[in-house]
Design brief:
alpha+beta, Secreted protein, plasmid
């Protein structure tokens, strides 16, 4: 009986540690994304009208044209 209790307690502790690890990892990823976006926002706010900002990251490319409405392009 005590072996079963010890084994179950160990399993619960292991599962709780895994859940805590996943939560911390996910939270860290969200915070890093927010910091990157905040940096982009601050840089864009400081640019004059007509400027173009292109940022490339791992699997994405962001192009921001200051002074144009969404959907307006160089046609």
């Amino acid at each position: 009986m005590p072996e079963t209790v010890i084994a179950l307690t160990g399993l619960v502790v292991l599962l709780a540690a895994r859940l805590l690890h996943r939560w911390i990892s996910s939270r860290t990823q969200v915070q890093l994304f927010r910091l990157r976006q905040n940096g982009t926002s601050e840089r864009v706010r400081a640019l004059p009208w007509g400027s173009v900002v292109t940022e490339r990251r791992a699997n994405e490319e962001v192009r921001i044209e200051i002074g144009k409405r969404a959907g307006e392009g160089d046609e």
